[in-house]
Design goal:
DiNH2opropionate_NH3_lyase; Diaminopropionate ammonia-lyase; eight-stranded mixed sheet; 408 residues; Rossmann fold; binds pyridoxal-5'-phosphate; 2 domains; pyridoxal phosphate; 18 helices; four-stranded parallel sheet; alpha/beta
């Protein structure tokens, strides 16, 4: 039996299946996420209009308040104007789909972003329809990619996706349809509609017989991980905390760090909401298990009940600890980021972006948890700020000010 430590707003246990730090990345993992796949995503995405690496903030004052040696926050709030890292994934998968359709019609020609943006293959691109289910940010990325490159897009959202998030997707010209049930129900709905209409599903999660597109999504996310590797230089973190919904983000970061840093890669902590803890549950079972119910959490991007099987293939060995975080601490994290300590930058983080700091805040008063996770004065912790104020109305309610006011 795994020994789970529980305290208010936090639970954690070490992954019994974790491989040792010296384990090479290996061929089985490279058959899913590869150096070449990450290279290709970087090459293509860096040519898109508006591409710029997002900031990596060092937060020494907050680190010292939390009793840590160092703290970094990768701030995705400015990614392509979409306010989350998700801009990298869904849109890249749409791009790859278009590239493949053009290659099929033009003797294998790999069209460049510039050629597609110039409308050189408009006849092929405009005949494509992409679709997906989303809790907000992934759909926004797919819709944006479809609009940018010129294909049609239909997006499905479930019952509890906020109106602000619905409107943000519609803003990119997609048809947005709300369906009953939770996220996993909307995934099944999108798959059925695509089958019926001859559309292509651009999902961030894999299922039986469907892997290539979610793998493109994960390679797209790798652009963010590669930026962090460059920004950190020789200052390697000892720990990285990555929030997980279906685990595509976490698997991408885990793989990219493993490939870049090998045995020097950081201790990898997966953080999930208490109410949507499919990795936490799967880790105990030693295989993917589904979590049911409405998965209601303020960390909207993490309200997923089923792990992505290919993400599981990377993370089941690559994760060192599984942890859950209470909603209260994710909200507290948003407020702490908005009111910085001496000299630290003010940061706009949405509910899901605050998960990692939420975990640190929940662990702060719990010596046993801190010790188990190695969160002490020698720890140099990297947090993934996966989103900014993706829903500005909710952001203002939680923080008491708008993003603009926080950054003024
Ligand atoms: C802002 C944000 N962070 C993290 C995640 C988690 O990503 P994944 O579902 O790949 O685990 C999501 C997913 O939607 C998200 O929107």
């Amino acid at each position: 039996m795994t020994q789970i430590l529980r305290a208010e707003g936090i639970a954690s246990y070490p992954n019994p299946l974790a491989v040792s730090a010296t384990t090479p990345y290996g061929e089985a993992r490279a058959a899913i996420l590869s150096r070449e796949g990450f290279d290709a995503a970087e090459r293509e995405i860096s040519q898109w209009p508006g591409y710029a690496p997002t900031p990596l903030h060092a937060l020494p004052a907050l680190a010292s308040r939390l009793g840590l040696g160092a703290l970094w926050y990768k701030d995705e709030s400015t990614r392509f104007g979409l306010k989350s890292f998700k801009a990298l994934g869904g849109a890249y998968a749409v791009f790859r789909l278009i590239q493949k359709a053009i290659a099929a019609a033009h003797g294998g020609h790999q069209a460049t972003p510039a050629e597609i943006l110039a409308g050189q293959y408009r006849d092929i691109v405009s005949a494509l329809t992409v679709t997906c289910a989303t809790d907000g940010n992934h759909g926004r990325s797919v819709a944006w990619g479809a609009q940018l490159f010129g294909c049609r897009c239909v997006i499905y959202i479930h019952a509890t996706v906020s109106e602000g998030r619905r409107a943000a997707i519609a803003h990119y010209g997609a048809e947005v349809i709300r369906v009953p049930g939770n996220y996993d129900d909307s995934v099944r709905h999108a798959a059925a509609e695509a089958e019926r209409n001859g559309w292509t599903v651009v999902s961030d999660t894999t299922y039986e017989g469907y892997r290539d597109i979610p793998i493109d999504v994960m390679h797209g996310y790798g652009v963010m991980a590669r930026e962090m590797v460059r920004q950190l230089g020789d200052e390697l973190p000892t720990h990285v905390i990555v929030q997980a919904g279906v685990g595509a983000l976490a698997a991408s970061v885990c793989a990219a760090f493993w490939l870049a840093w090998g045995e020097r890669r950081p201790v990898f902590i997966i953080a999930e909401p208490e109410q949507a803890d499919c990795f936490f549950q799967s880790g105990q079972a030693g295989r993917p298990v589904a979590v049911h119910g409405d998965l209601d959490t303020v960390m909207a991007g993490l309200a997923c009940g089923e792990v992505s099987p290919v993400a599981w293939e990377i993370l089941s060995g690559g994760a060192n600890h599984y942890a859950t975080v209470g909603d209260r601490f994710a909200l507290e994290a948003m407020r702490v980021f908005a009111l910085p300590q001496d000299g630290d930058a003010a940061i706009v983080s949405g509910e899901t972006g605050g998960t990692g700091l939420g975990l640190l805040l929940a662990a702060a008063g719990e010596p046993a948890v801190r010790q188990a996770l190695g969160l002490d004065a020698n720890a140099r912790v990297l947090l993934i700020g996966s989103e900014g104020d993706t829903d500005p109305v909710i952001y203002r309610e939680v923080v008491g000010r708008s993003a603009e006011e926080v950054l003024a």
